What does this fold into?
Amino acid sequence: MEYTGSSYEGDYKNGRMEGKGKYAFPTDTKYEGEMKDGMFHGQGTLYFPNGSKYVAKWENGIAVDGKYTFADGLEFDEPEWLYCDGYDRRFFTEICDGLKPAGRSQLTNRIPPRDIPEGCYDTGDGFYNPNTRVIVDYNHKFLRNADDDEHAWIIRTCRKGWDEIVGYQAKPDV
It folds into this structure.
């Protein structure tokens, strides 16, 4: 595990991770639960660095039944997922705590929203610099390079780190 940057603390059987244990990935994602033959097997939870978690039943390293809960407590429920659909675009905190007064728009589900570096975009898991096409986490550690599709999606949909005039603009007198 020293080669991958991972660590394990827990039960072993025949030199393999088996029983209850805690497995830590180099990305700061952590698993706590049951293991069998070196794989997640039985009940276990993945804890993500952003505060979200995935509680699941695992079979031979594959999640067969589980529930994802976002850091703010919102639970993902696929058959009845109505959050941020075409009809209701409120953030989960707005659903729980009500809307802000007029003129105080809530830009993200995080209060206060993150400050985005100038020229960058907030991708939800970090910041994107369109010049270098690099996405870094919120601690400025490298996450990934954006391919053409992700680049286009970020430019089209994500919050920007700069002000931009939108709407009607009168043409200057010539």
